Amino acid sequence: MKRFAWLVLVAFLLTTGFTSQESPEGPFPVRGIHFMVPQPDSVPAFVDFIKGPLRSSGVNTLILELNYSYRYESHPELASENALSQKQLQDIVAACRDSGINFIPMINLMGHQSWAETTFALLSKYPEFDETPGKYPNNKDIYCRSYCPQHPGLHKILFALIDELISVTDATDFHAGMDEVFLIGEDDCPRCRGQNRAQLLADEIKRIHAHLAEKKVRMWLWGDRLIDGETTGIGEWEASTNDTFAAIDMIPTDIVICDWHYEYSPPTAGMFALKGFPVVMSPWRKSDVALAHLEQMKHLRSASNKTLADRALGLVHTTWTSPENFMAAYSGDPSARESATESAECFKKLFKKLQ
Ligand SMILES: [Zn+2]
Hints:
Blueprint: H1 2-21, E1 30-36, H2 43-57, E2 61-65, H3 86-98, E3 102-109, E4 114-115, E5 118-119, H4 121-125, H5 154-169, E6 173-177, H6 197-214, E7 218-222, H7 229-232, E8 256-260, H8 268-275, E9 279-282, H9 287-303, H10 306-309, E10 312-318, H11 323-330, H12 338-354
Parallel strand pairs: 1-2, 1-10, 2-3, 3-6, 6-7, 7-8, 8-9, 9-10
Antiparallel strand pairs: 4-5
Bound molecules: zinc ion (ZN).
């Protein structure tokens, strides 16, 4: 009996000794994929795709970018044409739950309030929220419109949308987007003109974070506005050259950063981890980039101490086409768009290695 107790103690010490020194091995906590919203008619096919190929590929996280493509009960005026019903959204959520996949709803906040000539529902119904009201007719000469984070009427509406998505989907996580915000602190905004852009961005992130934290919901964010685009040479898309990156030191560090890079794999995930953030890396259509991201995340986990290694959560693949296109490309449909085919092939290669 005494001898047995000793054996147990030695075994316990050996085990704890190993786990405290050894970097985490095994599967990444996040093996994810990001989708735009499917058309209502395609929800059954999307549900089958989740329960079939996504599940068997080992996906455990699905981010669905809903934006205004949901029939919000709180704000029916903000639902776009072809928005999903509550039942359709819950069918997708149930398919994820049945497949062991964490469902994360997303609204892209701040930037991306328009695409080409189309201004999305928030700013077309509430033009007073526009950071550049009345300017850039037909969205000419700009990438996307932004809302003004300091408009006093804005957050009551945003929080109603966020709360409704969280409630309807039982989500524990929420992705707030905020990538490629180019219009911020504009001279055309009477509230923001002349203000520090990093502070403006950080304040908006903190407002959203505080609201989510009250509900014990974890916030996710694209990482580009938090990277210094000039020093790194990464540029103005996958990083920031519009004076926002200092926000990285002003925001809560429990936000999960989606560090997206589509052309090559700069060592930015390590920077986010060192700053205190949990981080995933996101590829799109280039398999060599996806596999380089995977190597980088593996290296972060194996070559760092436990504190940093634990922040390297994994990967989230991006599709940047409709789910319909991606599903067609995945099944080898030759009529699928080239970018969808490349993204589907990239997904397959990445997840084969992830398993
Ligand atoms: Zn403003």
